[in-house]
Here is the input.
Amino acid sequence: MMGSMVSPGPPQREDAPVHHRMEAGTKRGAREGRRGPPLLENPGLFIWALVIDLVLVHVWWLLTTRPYAFAAVLHLGVFSTLTFLLFLTDKVRARKETRRVSELNLLLFSIFGGAAGGLLAMILFRHKLKPLKFRILLPAALFLHIALLLVVTLEST
Here is the structure.
C-alpha cells in the first residue's frame, strides 16, 4: 500500500528562505519556465513533417521506375491525411477546451499539400468555417495543388 501514496515532495526546512521552499502542487525543474510551446502549437511540427515526407517520397520515387507525378500524388496524399488529422485534433481539443493546434500549423500543412484534407475536415467537422483566412486560403491552395499536379502529369507523359 505504500506505493499508492502520493509523495509530498522534498522535505523542507522551516528556516529555509521563502524562495527556496516549494509550494505543494507546483511544477519542479529549473527549465520549466523556459520551455517553448507544445509541438502542436509550434511550427517545428510542420518542418519535421515536410522533411520526413520529402525524404520518404523521394526515396520511394528513386527506388521505383514510376513517373514523378506518382511522387507528387503521394506527397499530396500524405499531407492531406496529416492535415485532416490535425483539424480533427484541433476540433476535439476545442470541445475539451484544452491547448489547441495553432492556426499557423493548420495553414502551413494546408498550403504545402494538405488542402484537400483540410477542406474535407472543415466540412465534415464544421470546424474553422468562420475565419476568412481558412475560407479563402484552403480553396485557393487546393486549386493550386490541382494545377501543379496537372502540370507535373502532363510533363511526365
User: Anything to note?
Assistant: Helices lie at 44-63, 68-96, 103-125, 132-156. Residues 68-96 form the longest helix (29 residues). The chain has one domain: 39-156.
